[in-house]
Structures are given as structure tokens and as C-alpha cells.
Amino acid sequence: MSTPADSLVDCSRVMVKNDAYGGAGAFATVDIANGELVEKGIVRVLTNCDGNENPYVFTWSDVIPNVTWACGSGCSTFYNTCEEESSNTHMVRDFANNSFVITATKDIKAGDELMHVYKSKKWRTCFGELNEEKK
């Protein structure tokens, strides 16, 4: 018999709904304490995709400029980005197993938007406007 702990994907503490930016964002459905699991999942590594143009894919390697791109499971692709001080989650990537874990970096209340700093925010062409807004 399988249990929820056996699942490769667990986004049971997260929902996706309209955000303040006119799109969709990930939001906590329950209170989550600093250090606790927010979401875990898997990715599909993509071919024939340029993540410099497509903002909806993950940076899935540490080899720049020959980056591998991936699409994440669950609610992971709906976490919006922010500055480090406003971030309340962090994603750890396991490249070997094509999986990830997102944990809380501070206490999160049910209803809070889940935000993290995109790994490639500073150098991907598609995020240029985010960096321009800071200036």
C-alpha cells in the first residue's frame, strides 16, 4: 500500500490562484513554520527550449551558458519572484534525481503568497524587466 510519503509530488500545502500582478501565484493553504516542507516534486527535463526567452521553465543545471531547462510538477511553476529579504521559500534542486524540495525560510501564514528568488533572475534575458525595475 502506498502512502503520501511515497509520493514523488506533494503540493498539498499550496494552491494556485490569481495574484496581485495580474497572473497566477502560489499561496499557502495552511500555516507553515520556518524550515518546514512547503512542497516537493519532480521535473521533466526539456529539449528544444530556450529558457532565456521562456520565463516559465526552471534553470536545471549549474552550467552557464549551456543551461539545461526543466518544467516542474505541482504548483512549483507558479511561485513568483522577489528580492531576497521578501522571500519566504527556497528551492533545493536535486539534478541527479530530477527532483526538488521547497522549504519555508520564515514562518508563513495560510493565505500568504509563496515567493522565492529565481536562481537565474539576474542573467536570463526574459527577466530583464525585473532587474530594470530595481534601478
UniProtKB/TrEMBL annotation:
Residue intervals passing through the bilayer: none
A matching Pfam family: SET
Domain SET: 1-119
InterPro entries (UniProt xref): SET_dom, SET_dom_sf
Name of the protein described by the UniProt record: SET domain-containing protein
